[in-house]
Design a protein that fits this description.
With 229 residues, this protein is of the alpha/beta class. It has two domains: 117 residues, serine acetyltransferase, domain 1 (Orthogonal Bundle); 94 residues, UDP N-Acetylglucosamine Acyltransferase, domain 1, CATH 2.160.10.10. A five-stranded parallel β-sheet has the order 1-4-7-10-13. Helix 1 runs antiparallel to helix 2 and helix 3 packs antiparallel against helix 5.
Length: 229
């Protein structure tokens, strides 16, 4: 099936308006052009978007509670790249679950281009979810993230370097993160590791092993050398 980039961009734009309760003209035509004329699939997609609407309301409240710099819901919707990336992820995830994997991936790459945040549409991210700043975040295909998690810039939920990619398609190879977890800037979590509930991972931590509940993982303070000019 030929995929028209303009149709997919129109689908994304109208879907975003729909889930954010803004004016959305032509959602069905844009869906039909980008996917196919299938009433049952369209109804399933709309049902998914209705669920996304409710989820994003909780995401918005979590943003407002998590960032003292945020002054209003409207500011977050308009100006926060982390929220935009989450909204587009949730839309692309709905498409992915309906079997439109290429279309979902294209839409997710629009968010990547706009925000610098790379979330694979197959990743499983619960809600509410908070991304602050966001630039450089990578969340891989088989990643899983629980409720009330917070992620800061340059965090990677990635896979270890692999050479037998064909054999590992569909196999969990990314981190599985529990509830109430905070991942600070620059943390790299690699492989199918399990991160427990109520865990904090400090900045620049490189982690390839499991972490149990209620643990803080940090790097020791580096030696600082001060010299007179």
């Amino acid at each position: 099936m030929m995929i028209c980039k303009n149709d997919l961009c129109s689908l994304l734009e109208n879907s975003l308006c729909y889930v954010l309760d803004e004016k959305a003209d032509g959602l069905k035509p844009s869906f039909v052009k980008a996917i196919k004329d299938d009433a049952q699939t369209y109804d399933a997609y709309i049902s998914s978007l209705n669920s996304v609407k409710e989820i994003l309301k909780e995401d918005l409240e979590f943003f407002l509670d998590s960032d003292p710099a945020a002054t209003s819901i409207e500011e977050i919707k308009l100006a926060y790249p982390g929220f935009k990336a989450i909204a587009i992820y949730r839309i692309s995830h709905a498409l992915y679950n309906l079997g439109y994997k290429v279309q979902a991936r294209y839409i997710s790459e629009q968010a990547h281009s706009m925000t610098g945040i790379d979330i694979h549409p197959a990743a499983k991210i619960s809600y509410p979810f908070f991304i602050d700043h966001g630039t450089g975040i990578v969340i891989g295909e088989t990643s899983s993230i629980g409720k009330r998690c917070k992620i800061y810039q340059c965090v990677t939920l990635g896979a270890l370097s692999l050479s037998n990619a064909k054999e590992l398609r569909g196999v969990v190879r990314h981190p599985q993160v529990g509830n109430d977890v905070t991942l600070y800037a620059g943390a790299s979590l690699l492989g199918p590791i399990h991160i427990g509930n109520n865990v904090t991972i400090g900045s620049n931590v490189f982690l390839t092993e499991d972490v149990s509940d209620n643990v803080k993982v940090i790097i020791g303070k580096p030696e600082l050398i001060y010299k007179n000019k």
